[in-house]
């Protein structure tokens, strides 16, 4: 489904991704782990189409279609979804208005009729319950005054509403207590489907206890340095990154050079 | 050196409409005082950014006629008075004869009332800072006197539809005086619209006197066409414990100027001034506000937001003057601005003058652009860039629009603003 070949990307002239190769098939869940500064979040942002990052080399295709040629909104309409590490607060736009506009943009793209306010309200209430968010949140500004955990649940709720082909979860576990982690994990597990690929980016292995990946990759210095099954995550938990020849702080520095 | 330009004498020809003698005398007196009135230039402080938009040609000196026309048939959720080219149109208006509330045309006033009114007109405005508005007193053909007896409460909003009909070039001088007795209440909606395509100027003055404990809400919608220059002044005098709330929503034009001057004269008076302005193309809009804290223990809260697209130009000047005896004054002023293009210009100036020592006074002004991070978040969900721009721009002013107390007016404003933004970003 997703094919990444020799992907290089820079921000403000600094090369962060230095040749990523990755194949994800429909139905698979892949985890990308790695120390801070290894390029994990950059990879997520590049796939979603953030223009702050410049792709200098390589190719990315989703079901054979060249993703890099598409605008951010076109990628979303083709089924790319990024759950943000830091979801943005937008006062003045209600969560409900935001979600309905997004759902209708996708429906419109697929040639389906738009959902009216009442239909959408019903759907949104159901999905908000699935991630244990009070439907009252729908009336507030987008992420406005939400706690860290509420913001992450709102991201998963959006994934459930938008039903993407490729869901990229950027540090979705960060800042969550154990109960919130459970709720978010249940949401992600509900997303698992034969026709959907999930790419989880995480610093810690604890998320992988709740959402068991099919493959684990270690990203360091802008490259994937090791790939394996879920046992690789357990090994990293036990031994750290050192045995792979990665020193956390140096990695962070080298990628900034 | 070139002599400073002065108001053309064409503008000082006597007005045609007959008024009761005290008002006619006031008109003549003002007219003669305006001979050689200097027109503002960019060196005139209170017109610095706007003088270049003011274009008064002699053709525009002619009073726009109101004869033989019916006036706007706009449906409104409340009482309605239609004022066409400054003349009230009784047949197009619809307001009941309510106990304690009178709405009269200047033309119909008896001698005593006309004398009473002539003594009060122009007292709520500082003539030095609203120089062009002085022309209104020299030229008004008619006017509305709205009087509320003590305790009178108007049960529905009163809409005053100011229509400028510019089938020919000319100018109109609508005039309103509101005398709100002690503890009376009224919601007044002034809607400025236009028809016709010739170049015209509307020069409008509204004054209000709020008696002790009176509660007045004023909503102003400025929606005239591209051929109409608008110069408006609103003066408000507030007695003890009165409350004044103002919501101004303005769309740009060739020249748009609104001076809003509030004097808190009695202790415990309270005012809240909200304003939203949007400009596009080569449009202009200039809001000048003044709050005079004359008495002690008064509150003022002011929030204005401007959005300028394309090559348009918005100006905000907010003055707060806290007099020496106005101890325990509480004044807050906030102005935020959004530039939607590199060619747009916004000038904002807070002016604080404080002579009392025990006061709270806060102000803030910002000018920014749409937030890229927010924009990326929205488009990453499949929302089109244009729609994302509209959502974020609406969000910038929603906080203020949502405070407009009359639902139908709020919806009208929201509809117009939405249309404006969709148009703005369509072209971008």
From TrEMBL, chain A:
Keywords in alphabetical order: ATP-binding, Nucleotide-binding
InterPro entries: AAA+_ATPase (IPR003593), ABC_transporter-like_ATP-bd (IPR003439), FeS-cluster_ATPase_SufC (IPR010230), P-loop_NTPase (IPR027417)
A family per Pfam: ABC_tran
Keyword ATP-binding among UniProt keywords: yes
Record-annotated ABC transporter domain positions: 2-246
A Gene Ontology molecular function term of the record: ATP hydrolysis activity
Keyword Nucleotide-binding carried by entry: yes
NCBIfam families per UniProt: sufC (TIGR01978)
Family statement: Belongs to the ABC transporter superfamily. Ycf16 family.
Protein's name according to its UniProt entry: Fe-S cluster assembly ATPase SufC
TrEMBL record, chain B:
Pfam families assigned to the protein according to its UniProt record, in alphabetical order: SUFBD_core
InterPro entries referenced in this protein's UniProt entry, alphabetically: Fe-S_cluster_assembly_SufBD (IPR055346), SUF_FeS_clus_asmbl_SufBD_core (IPR000825), SUF_FeS_clus_asmbl_SufBD_sf (IPR037284), SUF_FeS_clus_asmbl_SufD (IPR011542)
A GO BP entry: iron-sulfur cluster assembly
Residue span, SUF system FeS cluster assembly SufBD core domain: 168-396
Designated name of the protein: Fe-S cluster assembly protein SufD
């Amino acid at each position: 489904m997703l094919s990444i070949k020799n992907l290089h990307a820079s921000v403000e002239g600094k090369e962060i991704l230095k040749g990523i190769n990755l194949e994800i098939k429909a139905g698979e869940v892949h985890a990308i782990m790695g120390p801070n500064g290894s390029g994990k979040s950059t990879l997520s942002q590049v796939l979603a189409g953030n223009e702050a990052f410049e792709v200098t080399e390589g190719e990315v295709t989703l079901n054979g279609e060249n993703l890099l040629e598409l605008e951010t909104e076109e990628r979303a309409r083709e089924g790319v979804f990024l759950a943000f590490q830091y979801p943005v607060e937008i006062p003045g736009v209600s969560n409900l208005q935001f979600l309905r506009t997004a759902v209708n943009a996708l429906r419109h793209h697929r040639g389906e009729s738009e959902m009216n306010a009442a239909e959408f309200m019903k759907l949104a209430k159901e999905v908000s319950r699935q991630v244990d968010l009070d439907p009252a949140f729908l009336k507030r500004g987008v992420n406005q005054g939400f706690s860290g955990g509420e913001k992450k649940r709102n991201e998963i709720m959006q994934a459930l509403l938008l039903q993407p082909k490729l869901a990229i979860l950027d540090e979705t576990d960060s800042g969550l207590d154990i109960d919130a982690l459970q709720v978010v994990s249940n949401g992600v597990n509900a997303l698992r489907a034969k026709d959907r690929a999930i790419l989880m980016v995480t610093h810690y292995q604890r998320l992988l206890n709740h959402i068991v990946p099919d493959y684990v990759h270690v990203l360091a210095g802008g490259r994937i340095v090791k790939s394996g099954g879920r046992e690789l995550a357990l090994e990293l938990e036990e031994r750290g990154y050192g045995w792979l020849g990665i020193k956390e702080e140096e990695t962070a520095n080298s990628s900034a050079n | 050196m070139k002599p400073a330009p002065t108001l053309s004498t064409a503008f000082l020809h006597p007005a045609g409409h007959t008024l009761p003698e005290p008002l006619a005398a006031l008109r003549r007196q003002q007219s003669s005082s305006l001979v050689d009135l200097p027109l503002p230039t960019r060196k005139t402080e209170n017109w610095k950014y706007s003088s270049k938009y003011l274009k008064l040609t002699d053709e525009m000196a002619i009073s726009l006629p109101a004869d033989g026309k019916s006036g706007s048939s706009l449906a409104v959720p409340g009482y309605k008075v239609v004022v066409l080219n400054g003349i009230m149109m009784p047949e197009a208006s619809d307001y009941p004869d309510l106990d304690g509330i009178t709405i009269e045309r200047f033309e119909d006033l008896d001698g005593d009332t006309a004398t009473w009114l002539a003594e009060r007109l122009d007292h709520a405005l500082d003539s030095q800072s609203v120089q062009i508005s002085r022309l209104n007193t020299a030229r008004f053909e008619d006017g509305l006197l709205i009087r509320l007896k003590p305790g009178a409460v108007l049960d529905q909003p009163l809409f005053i539809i100011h229509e400028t009909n510019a089938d020919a070039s000319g100018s109109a001088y609508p005039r309103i005086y509101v005398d709100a007795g002690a503890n009376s209440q009224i919601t007044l909606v002034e809607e400025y619209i236009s028809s016709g395509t010739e170049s015209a100027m509307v020069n409008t003055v509204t004054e209000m006197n709020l008696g002790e404990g009176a509660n007045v809400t004023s909503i102003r919608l400025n929606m005239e066409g591209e051929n109409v220059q608008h110069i408006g002044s609103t003066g408000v005098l507030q007695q003890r414990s009165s409350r004044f709330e103002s919501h101004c929503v303005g769309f740009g034009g060739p020249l748009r100027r609104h001076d809003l001057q509030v004097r808190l004269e009695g202790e415990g008076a309270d005012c809240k001034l909200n304003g939203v302005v949007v400009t596009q193309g080569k449009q202009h809009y200039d809001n000048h506000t003044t709050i005079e804290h004359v008495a002690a223990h008064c509150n003022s809260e002011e929030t204005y937001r401007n959005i300028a697209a394309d090559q348009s130009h918005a100006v905000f000047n907010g003055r707060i003057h806290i007099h020496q005896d106005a101890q325990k004054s509480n004044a807050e002023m906030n102005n935020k601005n959004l530039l939607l293009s590199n060619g747009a210009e916004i000038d904002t100036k807070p002016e604080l003058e404080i002579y009392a020592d025990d006061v709270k006074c806060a102000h803030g002004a910002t000018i920014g652009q749409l937030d890229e991070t927010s924009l990326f978040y929205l488009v990453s969900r499949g929302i089109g860039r244009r729609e994302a721009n509209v959502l974020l721009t609406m969000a910038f002013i929603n906080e203020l629009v949502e405070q407009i107390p009359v639902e139908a007016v709020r919806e009208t404003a929201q509809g117009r603003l939405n249309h404006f933004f969709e148009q703005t970003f369509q072209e971008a």
